[in-house]
Design brief:
Length: 171
């Protein structure tokens, strides 16, 4: 009976080690996949997103990922559900629905809500300095940011500042 128990213990240990290894591989693969699919390079791999990515890459928001703006950040579960829904929709449109892809891409109502919430989340400090009660959402006035066809920045954006701001009390 002792011999059977030793063989059973070895099997349990082996299956436990295999399970732990599989879990680590699955987790690492999933985390890596989630991170990779957040990038602009991934999003632009569909030919219809080429111009969208180019304009984004040349914008003030280029340091962000696509999903910093296009996915909710309330909690991981909500983010993953929205990411899965968007991914399935994109896969469908780029395969079976390719003939239905419009020349100009527009955000869905759900996406506009998410984007607006993320705009406010990042820019909340500056919203206190400017009155923004004219329109319903950020996108109403700032629709071309960061995906404009042209450069929306004024010429002075590129000019070096000819002053140096020194905080009060410092010399």
């Amino acid at each position: 009976m002792g011999e059977k128990l030793k063989r059973l213990d070895k099997k349990i240990l082996l299956f436990t080690l295999i399970g732990v290894f599989a879990g680590i591989v699955l987790f690492a693969g999933t985390a890596g996949t989630l991170k990779a699919t957040d990038t602009g390079e991934f999003c632009s791999s569909c030919h219809v997103m080429g111009t969208v990515y180019e304009t984004f890459a040349n914008s003030n928001h280029a340091a962000l990922t696509c999903n910093d703006c296009h996915l909710p950040h309330d909690n991981a579960a909500i983010k993953f559900v929205e990411k899965a829904k968007a991914g399935m929709g994109h896969m469908y449109m780029n395969t079976l629905g390719a003939s239905k892809i419009p020349d100009v891409l527009h955000a869905t109502e759900n996406s506009k809500e998410i984007i607006n919430k993320n705009c406010i989340s990042c820019h909340e400090p500056s919203l206190q300095n400017v009155q923004h009660d004219v329109k319903d959402s950020c996108v109403d006035c700032h629709r071309q940011v960061p995906h404009s066809k042209g450069d929306f920045r004024p010429a002075e954006w590129y000019e070096p500042k000819d002053f140096y701001f020194m905080p009060a009390g410092r010399k």
